[in-house]
């Protein structure tokens, strides 16, 4: 029911966000798919406990196909209730058709249960490729560190040459940050929880704890100790992991941007970008995009952290403020990770310029030994 024209007319397709990625994993269709997955998981969980007829669960599963829903219409109707779950449930019940079966749709859940679970599912799916890229990047940095273990260059502090170091040690530092980012993102992905608390977080429906356990298992999400309608630890932890990853990737980009300056020339992007007015320029575009992402994600994380201060048992505004910043942060980190892999793969190291630029004298200290120790970390 949703045509390409409907989706592109007036839509934000990323024209002003070339540093983003994971659009298919985080777009409106992906969120719709995840909400439908949550509704199917809910009725399946209830059916396994005898709380809903198996026929009703099968009917909901048949009806819960993304292509059967009018996304632009859902978006328009979401405004009246303040979230997209309300019109989605209306349409899903209508699609099930049989009155008795339709009455089991969304039973025991509230809108926040479905959307929270859907966004955790979207995050889980989007983080998969990010983790792959971070692991690939760490391997590439390990290769650079080993190859250039003893390649001398100037260490710069407060913008000035300080003492000699090695490029291998700089690459080992990039690898360390990347491994730290991978560890945080991996841990938070494993802990992403489903949400099923009912209207006020009391699981008032019969066998609520058992339904919640089966619901989370069906989605492949962790089962929380308590409903987290206003206990936003999962969102804060996710924000932290995304902000750290963006910063770790941003450090790599910042070094490339400095060292690729014309007057320094110690690094360059193998595939740089051009200029609309200066055709002689070879701009470090990938590093620029990573740096842009790294500057945005911490601000988005601050919004997500702000939702910790949520009133009552379900909040007005705090929860709603999370949705778009979370999605944007996922896109930016995914794009930065992908750009970083491409940048590292095409990076040109100009060892002769590193040596020529050295204006300070002396040895490189324990740089080589530090590289050796760093490369033992997995």
TrEMBL record:
Pfam families linked: Lyase_1
Gene Ontology terms describing biological process: 3,4-dihydroxybenzoate catabolic process
NCBIfam families, alphabetized: protocat_pcaB (TIGR02426)
InterPro entries documented for this protein: Fumarate_lyase_CS, Fumarate_lyase_fam, Fumarate_lyase_N, L-Aspartase-like, Protocat_PcaB-like
Organism: Sinosporangium siamense
Source organism phylogeny: Bacteria, Bacillati, Actinomycetota, Actinomycetes, Streptosporangiales
SUPFAM superfamilies: L-aspartase-like (SSF48557)
PROSITE patterns found in the cross-reference section: FUMARATE_LYASES
Residues of the Fumarate lyase N-terminal domain: 34-297
Protein name: 3-carboxy-cis,cis-muconate cycloisomerase
Record key words, sorted: Lyase
Family: Belongs to the class-II fumarase/aspartase family.
A molecular function GO annotation: lyase activity
Domain of life: Bacteria
């Amino acid at each position: 029911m949703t045509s390409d024209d409907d989706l592109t007319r007036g839509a934000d397709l990323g024209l002003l966000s070339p540093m983003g990625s994971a659009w298919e994993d985080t777009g409106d269709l992906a969120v719709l798919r995840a909400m439908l997955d949550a509704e199917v998981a809910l009725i399946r969980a209830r059916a396994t406990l005898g709380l809903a007829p198996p026929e009703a669960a099968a009917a909901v599963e048949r009806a819960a196909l993304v292509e059967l829903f009018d996304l632009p219409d859902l978006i328009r109707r979401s405004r009246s209730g303040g979230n997209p779950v309300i019109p989605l449930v209306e349409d899903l019940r209508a699609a099930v058709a049989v009155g008795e079966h339709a009455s089991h749709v969304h039973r025991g859940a509230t809108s926040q249960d479905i959307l929270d679970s859907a966004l955790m599912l979207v995050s889980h799916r989007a983080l998969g490729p990010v983790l792959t890229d971070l692991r690939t990047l760490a391997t590439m940095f390990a290769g650079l560190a080993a190859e250039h273990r003893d390649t001398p260059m100037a260490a710069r502090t407060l913008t000035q040459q300080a003492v000699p170091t090695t490029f291998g040690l700089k690459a080992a530092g990039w690898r360390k940050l990347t491994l730290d980012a991978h560890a945080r993102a991996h841990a938070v992905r494993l802990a992403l929880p489903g949400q099923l608390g009912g209207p006020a977080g009391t699981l008032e429906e019969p066998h609520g704890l058992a339904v919640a356990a089966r619901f989370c298992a069906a989605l492949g999400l962790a089962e929380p100790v308590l409903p987290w309608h206003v206990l936003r630890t999962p969102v804060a932890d996710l924000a932290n992991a995304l902000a750290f990853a963006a910063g770790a990737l941003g450090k790599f980009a910042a070094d490339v941007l400095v060292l690729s300056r014309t007057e320094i020339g110690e690094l360059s992007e193998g595939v740089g970008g051009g200029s609309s007015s200066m055709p002689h320029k070879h701009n470090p575009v990938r590093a620029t995009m990573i740096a842009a992402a790294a500057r945005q994600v911490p601000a988005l994380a601050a919004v997500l952290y702000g939702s910790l201060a949520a009133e009552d048992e379900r909040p007005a505004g705090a929860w709603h403020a999370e949705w778009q910043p979370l999605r944007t942060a996922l896109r930016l980190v995914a794009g930065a990770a992908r750009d970083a892999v491409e940048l590292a793969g095409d990076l040109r190291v100009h060892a002769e310029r590193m040596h020529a630029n050295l204006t300070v004298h002396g040895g490189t200290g324990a740089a080589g030994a530090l590289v050796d120790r760093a490369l033992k970390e997995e």
